[in-house]
Write a sequence for this structure.
């Protein structure tokens, strides 16, 4: 059944071609290996007794561990053994985790969301793991949170693994975005698309429209124009999808175009958005940009934002270039807080 090269073969070739350093190649191979273990747990769900909220008591009367916590531990345990990293940061942990003092340290920092879209897990819908690789600063003292606060443009690689009907892996190390399918027989990720390309234009958008009453005026205006279809200013009909799982949503956008949005809104005026800059938005932005798409806050490029904290949030408009530009156009006369400029 295997037609394309495996992930390992593809990366080894990229290394031979001078496109990726050997230790970064290994970081991607090992992260993908950890993702396979996560997929094993996700796919066995209730059989492994890992579904449900933390604190939930299972049928044996034992307290369950939440799958977010289990998947976080899988990545940490696996990656710590590789000696390829100087530290890790995860959406599941308040602070970063420097590599153990008594172990050799690698040149990279790994940032991840171990189980994105986890509210979908109990209803057997797609979830995924998102990761981003940053350069570690050259220093002898242990890594601290501030070392991770680098804009997305500094990422040397990013990827996500989608646990859907098939397990898909998408990676980028700055020279396109590449897509693999996990072959369940050989348990290898097999290359299926060496250079993904997001169509520049689209007639499909993704947003949680139940939040409509909280949106700022530019977002209200933009969606209203999409909804009026052929009769409105856009002169064409739009389709809408919302899976509530960013990995599944971005995979769809990579495959057939579209715009994925999670705008800043009035529910929590102090917060810059819902999605996390470092664990979700930056890695997805790198993958999309390398596939000819774009990623914006509505006011500027996501990857240029200087993070202030590990868990910063950000507004997201991501996908087909022309559509993201349209969305940005609506935001031009407004501040990030949604106030019309004088
Ligand atoms: O941040 C986690 C996440 O589940 C994303 O994967 C997804 O796009 C979004 O939140 C869904 O949010 P909501 O539950 O508001 O639709």
């Amino acid at each position: 059944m295997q037609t394309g090269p495996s992930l390992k073969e593809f990366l080894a070739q990229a290394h031979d071609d001078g496109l990726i350093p050997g230790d970064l190649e290994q970081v991607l191979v090992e992260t993908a290996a950890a993702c396979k273990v996560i997929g094993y747990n996700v796919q066995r769900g209730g059989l492994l007794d890992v579904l449900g909220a933390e604190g939930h008591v299972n049928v044996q009367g034992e307290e369950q561990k939440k799958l977010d916590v289990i998947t976080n531990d899988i990545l940490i345990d696996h990656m710590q053994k590789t000696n390829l990293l100087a530290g890790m940061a995860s959406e599941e942990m308040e602070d970063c985790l420097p590599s153990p003092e008594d172990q050799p340290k690698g040149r990279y920092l790994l940032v991840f969301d171990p189980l994105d879209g986890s509210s979908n897990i109990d209803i057997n819908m797609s979830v995924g793991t998102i990761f981003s690789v940053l350069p570690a600063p050259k220093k002898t003292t242990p890594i601290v949170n501030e070392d991770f606060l680098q804009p997305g443009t500094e990422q040397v690689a990013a990827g996500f693994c989608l646990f859907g009907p098939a397990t898909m892996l998408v990676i980028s190390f700055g020279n396109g975005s590449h897509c693999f399918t996990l072959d369940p027989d050989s348990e290898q990720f097999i290359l299926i698309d060496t250079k993904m390309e997001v169509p520049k234009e689209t007639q499909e958008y993704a947003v949680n429209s139940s939040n409509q009453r909280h949106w700022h005026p530019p977002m209200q205006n933009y969606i209203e124009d999409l909804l009026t279809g052929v009769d409105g200013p856009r002169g064409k009909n739009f389709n809408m999808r919302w899976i509530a799982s960013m990995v599944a949503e971005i995979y769809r956008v990579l495959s057939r175009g579209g715009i994925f949005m999670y705008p800043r809104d009035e529910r929590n005026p102090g917060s810059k958005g819902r999605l996390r800059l470092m664990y979700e938005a930056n890695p997805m932005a790198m993958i999309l940009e390398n596939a000819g798409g774009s990623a914006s806050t509505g006011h500027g490029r996501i990857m240029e934002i200087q993070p202030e904290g590990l868990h910063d949030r950000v507004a997201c408009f991501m996908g087909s270039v022309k559509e993201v530009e349209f969305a940005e156009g609506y935001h031009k006369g407004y501040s990030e807080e949604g106030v019309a400029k004088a």
Summary: Residues 7-193 form a domain with the Fructose-1,6-Bisphosphatase; Chain A, domain 1 fold (CATH 3.30.540.10).
